[in-house]
Amino acid sequence: MLNQQEILSTLEMVQHENLDVRTVTLGLSLLDCGSDDLGRFCDNIRQRIGSLARDLVKVCDQVGQKYGIPVVNKRIAVSPIAVAAAGFDRSQMVTVAETLDGIAREVGVDFIGGFSALVQKGIARGDRALIEAVPEALARTARVCASVNVASTRAGINMDAVLLMGRVIKRAAELTADRDGLACAKLCVFANIPQDIPFMAGAYLGVGEPDAVINVGVSGPGVVKKAIDRALAGGASLDLGRISEIIKRTAYKVTRVGELIGREVAERLDIGFGVVDLSLAPTPHVGDSVGEIFQSLGLLSIGVPGTTAALAMLNDAVKKGGAFASSHVGGLSGAFIPVSEDLNIGQAAGDGHLCIEKLEAITSVCSVGLDMVALPGDTSEETLAAIMADEMAIGVINRKTTATRLIPVPGKKAGERAFFGGLLGESPIMAVNNAGGQNRFVRLGGLIPAPIQSLVN
Prior knowledge:
Structural class: alpha/beta
Distance between the termini: 39 Å
CATH topology of the largest domain: Anaerobic Ribonucleotide-triphosphate Reductase Large Chain
Number of domains: 2
Radius of gyration: 21 Å
CATH class of the largest domain: Alpha Beta
């Protein structure tokens, strides 16, 4: 329980520091909706999602109003469609995506995730059909998000899947060329994907999860920045160890708020509560930036020397505070560094302080990876695959989750800007070493074996 002083400080966070519950995500299993008839399958998922999600938005709004803490996004995550709809072909998978989009619109959620496949060790028939459907599915829908897990520490890296995803990303960008390749902003490629992520675009409900569950994503980069600023402005002599303690205590409060909201939403919907994902997820608004935290810590900008060490400290302190606050911390839980969704990080890329090579380096200690990175439109599918393979290797070797959301913006070059709108923001297009567009390494294909640290039995 929070004491009176902690309650007052939490209200201050809400009013002046951009604290909110970033998302309440309803996870729903579709594994019992299976049918070899497409129409019947779509009817089954429409009935299941509609019956359990019809009050989600209303209840989230009611609970948010009760506590004065806004729930910004209401979302749904479903079982991997490559599994639930394994018997269908590419065109039928597109129909399934359109059905999900219609359901999401009817119940009023922002996004629905789970147009997903898990192919870290091989590609089954349903996986291939879904992956081939991804470009058209994301181009023809507004609220559907897709994710594909191509690597894991226990399995290695499926390079055939990585190269296939390079082609998929290029095609998705081409189909939404009039929107700067927007379809790619709804597609994540993962290593070690968690089964309980509430954040999009990677959210899906894992096969080990219950029939229905409420997962919550809280976010407070502005809260963390203000806490550091207040401490440093107070005149006290603070070293990095004491600053880390301040971040940890702040993360504790933020996590408690998220669990409070999530549990009440779950209770009102008569659905079990799952996890709190306490990731620092920024928005393209001043005062709600992960990048600004680096400046509060004394760096000129994210991307300059010292960035990796600062991010490692930030990520660790956030996880420690969250783990102390709740026994149900899950998802990604750390610091997101999306280029277009964070105003300060986008500015750092535009000013030349942050290049894609440094961004890749710091993903070794953050929660995600190369997130919302706009690239020149002529970036080849082999180069995209090679960038993904590098990022997957970081996750596999370090036994952590990494991911990419790469957006080759058709018709644009490095230094120009891409505009995605809303929470997706805008960003400069980052230069990339395209190496003539040829990459024989990724075309060798096959499975990069699991590392020695996978042998933990």
